[in-house]
Amino acid sequence: MIAGGPGTGKTHTVARILALLETMEGPGLRIGLAAPTGKAAARLQESVREQESELTLPPGLTAMTLHRMLGWQRGRTRFRYHADNHLPYDVIVVDETSMVSLTMMCRLLEAVRPDTRLVLVGDPDQLASVDAGAVLADLIARPVSGDVNPVFIRPQRATSKPPVIRTRPPSDPSNTTGCGAGSCG
């Protein structure tokens, strides 16, 4: 997640992350750029393309709406991409995530392959979804439970013991949801 207010360099950071991944993975990295609205997708595309030559990004990256990325089909109740037919991308960037509804985020997460890197970008204090949910704000505000945040785990040698990661707060041994007192509603 990349979060910050207007003008803090979120999209600038996205372009650099994409360039780093392209360098690490090599040519052929499949990058999907999306946003909840056409206008937000156009701004994301313009910003990334402005930096493509400086950062050696793949030329001509195109952003689209989330509906288009998921393959909305007129007259159908299901998107083209879903849990049984995953999106083909290695990296997906979703800008203006604060505008994404809970339902749309659910559809996106169902369609993402398990090995895909998902980068959510936005300002949790701005542009709330017109539908149910404040996904970005909730993700950012959610407390991390357990002793070790998995993001900060370094690869272990085969002879060393793996770190212990708690799935429930120590204060309530009967809690198996991973949620603290009242934090998961």
Question: Care to describe what's here?
Answer:
- This protein has 185 residues and is an alpha/beta fold.
- It contains five helices and five strands.
- It has two domains: 141 residues, 3-Layer(aba) Sandwich (Rossmann fold); 39 residues, no CATH class.
- A five-stranded parallel beta sheet has the order 1-5-4-2-3.
- β2, α2 and β3 form a beta-alpha-beta unit.
- α1 crosses α2.
- The radius of gyration is 18 Å and the shape is globular.
- The relative contact order is 0.14.
Key structural traits:
Rossmann fold; 5 helices; 5-stranded parallel sheet; 185 residues
Short description:
The protein has 5 helices and 5 strands. It has 185 residues and is α/β, with parallel strands linked by helices.
Whole-angstrom Rg: 18 Å
Give the helix proportion (percent range): 25-40%
| CATH class membership of the largest domain | Alpha Beta
| Total helical segments | 5
Q: In CATH terms, what is the fold-level topology of the largest domain?
A: Rossmann fold
Classification by helices and strands: alpha/beta
CATH architecture group name of the largest domain: 3-Layer(aba) Sandwich
Identify the strand order in the major beta sheet: 1-5-4-2-3
Tell me the strand percentage band: 5-15%
The total strand number stands at: 5
- Can you give the mean pLDDT? 77
Task: Let me know the CATH homologous superfamily of the largest domain.
Answer: P-loop containing nucleotide triphosphate hydrolases
In the residues, how many domains can be counted?
Answer: 2
Distance between the termini: 23 Å
Strand/helix succession = EHEHEHEHEH
Unreliable runs = 157-185
Shape descriptor reads globular
Largest sheet: 5 strands, parallel
